[in-house]
Amino acid sequence: MTLRLNFLFCLFTLLIQANPGVSHPSATWLTTKGYGPDSPKYWILFKAKDQSVRPALSETAITRRKAQNFPLDETDQPVSAAYLSQLKQEGVQPLNKSRWLNAVSARLTTEQFAQVAALPFVAGIQAIDPAIIITSIGNPDGSRSISPHMAPVMTQIQASDFAQAGLTGRFVNIGVIDAGFFGADSANALKHVFAREGVKRVRDYVNDKKTHGDLFHTLETMSDFHGTEVLAAIAGSDPIENTQYGLATDATFYLARTDQGNREYRGEEDNWVAAMEWMDSLGVRLINTSLGYAKGMSNPKENYEPRQMDGHTSLISRAAQIAADKKGILIVVSAGNEGDDRSWRIISTPADAQGVLAIGATNARLWNRIGYSSIGPESLPYMKPNVSCFSLYGTSLSAPVITGFAACIMQANPKLTNKEVMDIIEKSSHLYPYGNNYVGYGVPQASRAISLLRNQPLPATARSVKASGKSFTLPVSTEESVVSVFHKKDAMHILQQEAMKVSNGKLALRRATGEKQTTVDLKTEVIEVIWE
Q1: Which 3-state string (H, E, C) describes 111-139?
Q2: 187: which strand partners?
Q3: Which of 454, 482, 504 is the last residue of a domain?
Q4: Which of 275, 291, 247 is nearest to 412 (CA)?
Q5: Cβ-based neighbour number of residue 488 at 10 Å
Q6: Contact indicator for 385, 439 with CB cutoff of 8 Å
Q7: Cis geometry, peptide bond prior to residue 433 (ω within 30 degrees of 0)
Q8: What SS3 state is found at 255?
């Protein structure tokens, strides 16, 4: 299967030079090897900035920002001078500094890599050289930690509202079908799950000789970290960092490895279906699968074509629809990371199945589609993706967030059917009912879901207005200086999305050629402009 993941997501990565298919049995650390005087180049990412330092901008730049109502933030502040000094004490000479990334580039030997990774102010290291393979690593003490960049999405979906209502996914069984779960039992963010024996059963459909412990302690390919990150995005909580990464912290889990990682071929679809049926046999009603098929197969003849993303051509889409219609399973699927791929762009399978909940990814600030997130095919008569949420590192990590969201709903009312849970998730989303094929109905909001569970009326946050001609001035009530606007050719399909400036409480809309409707996203309100 093609992983729904940009492997640059690991801020605690270790970069190694290896050949595809090489096994690394029982690996806890992975190390680089064989570098000469011209050591590989890396980004060294820092955890924080010195908030007392002025932004690294000229007065001209600051004036322009203020004129455009773009506030200054920590990305404008320079990299900490103290961090640079400590790196130099380690013999590391920074090459370039990035205030946006809060990072510096440098060439590191194997020994320097380990020394720098252990520094308390270093969040992680990423390769710049394209030949380097990126993967997760353990901490120097042998434990593992999950990237802190998952935390912002918890605020976006209002995780605290579920927590206050006592909804943590307790008594809900969740299946996770993925590529591997290496190190999951020692990850700081997942220790609470394993301490209460929250992982009940595991199955390896790639290597059926593996035991329960082998799945967590044997590394065959770099993909074997993927399921660990996904599991953390569903249930992760790190008491040391006081950070919550997922909503379903008290759920029970059934794990299946179906992806081989070192090659892509359609034979893995059988693994996926077998895992689905296994989980169905155990009574699992909620399954996350951050995997999918599109192109990129080792044998190009096995690639799908975009026209085949129709909800019924692929075997796994048919299986997923059966699971939804006949088995009562809610399948949460990542929409895909092909949005920037001009030869594809759309979702892949099984996200195309009507009965699954396909999850896209949004930007952090505007909540519109982040570039890589796959788009729903215009040929489909139904909405895809269904909803979205923030993920900087792929829809692999947005889907499990919504899986945790679903688990909280299912805990609150175990009698709800899979389709009723899906309906609540869609109706709780911030753009509902004005969805589109970029982000679906938008970002689910816990406060709205709780109101729907209690049969309480939702606040009136959606309205429509009519407009004529080529332009329209829309009064808006928002504290945001810039808002997201979706220009649509019809009720569902996007012509383009745009970030627009709010000026004196008004938004100056210009109608594009072929535009029939325009969705204005104010986060707390959505306005649908219907052009006549």
Answers
A1: HHHHHHHCCCCEEEEEECCCCCEEEECCC
A2: 144
A3: 454
A4: 247
A5: 25
A6: yes
A7: yes
A8: strand
Nearest to 485 by CA among 455, 447, 445, 515: 515
Here the tokens at position 5 are 């993941």
**160 and 88 within one domain:** no
329 and 250 in a single domain? The answer is: yes
Assign residue 520 the CATH number of its domain. 2.60.40
pLDDT per position as a tens digit, 307-357: 888 888 877 888 899 899 889 999 999 999 999 988 889 998 899 999 999
Quote the tokens at residue 116.
Answer: 């720098």
In a domain, 133, yes or no: no
Closest to 183 (Cα-Cα) out of 240, 130, 133, 222? 222
Domain end position, chosen among 415, 433, 454: 454
Convert the pLDDT of each residue in 463-504 to its tens digit. 999 999 999 999 999 999 999 999 999 999 999 999 999 999
Q: Is residue 326 part of a domain?
A: yes
Tell how far CA 64 is from the center of its chain: 33
Same domain, residue pair 106 and 188: no
Q: Total domain count for the chain?
A: 3
Dist CA 286 CA 404 (whole Å): 10
Tokens of 91: 């013999």
CA distance 256 to 264: 17
Domain that holds residue 313: 150-454
In one letter, which amino acid is 476? V
Q: Is residue 135 situated within a structural domain?
A: no
Q: Check if the beta carbon of residue 146 is closer than 8 Å to that of residue 232.
A: yes
Residues 267 and 416 in one domain: yes
- Kindly list the catalytic residues: 178, 226, 396
311 is a domain residue: yes
